[in-house]
TrEMBL record:
SMART domains: RPOLCX (SM00659)
Primary site of residence: nucleus
Keyword Transmembrane helix: no
Family: Belongs to the archaeal Rpo12/eukaryotic RPC10 RNA polymerase subunit family.
GO CC term (a single one): RNA polymerase II, core complex
Pfam families in the record: Zn_ribbon_RPAB4
Protein name: DNA-directed RNA polymerases I, II, and III subunit RPABC4
Species lineage: Eukaryota, Metazoa, Chordata, Craniata, Vertebrata
Organism: Anabas testudineus
Record's subcellular location: Nucleus
Recorded superkingdom: Eukaryota
PANTHER family given in the database record: DNA-DIRECTED RNA POLYMERASES I, II, AND III, DNA-DIRECTED RNA POLYMERASES I, II, AND III SUBUNIT RPABC4
Length: 58
């Protein structure tokens, strides 16, 4: 685990999003506009992770 969030080098340069209109998968970098490359639609959904996510109930 990294000691500081800002200095972690194992973070991806882009994230994958699905377009709400045409359901295509787009990779968006930090400074890219939020827009589908196929249809130009601006509503995007972040893809789910394939990692196991565990929440502790208290």
């Amino acid at each position: 685990m990294c000691s500081s969030f800002l200095f972690c080098n194992n973070l991806p340069d882009f994230l994958f999003f699905l377009t709400a209109e045409c359901h295509t998968e787009n990779e968006i970098k930090a400074r890219d506009p939020i827009r589908c490359r196929e249809c130009g639609y601006r509503i995007m959904y972040k893809k789910r992770t394939k990692r196991l996510v565990v929440f502790d109930a208290r």
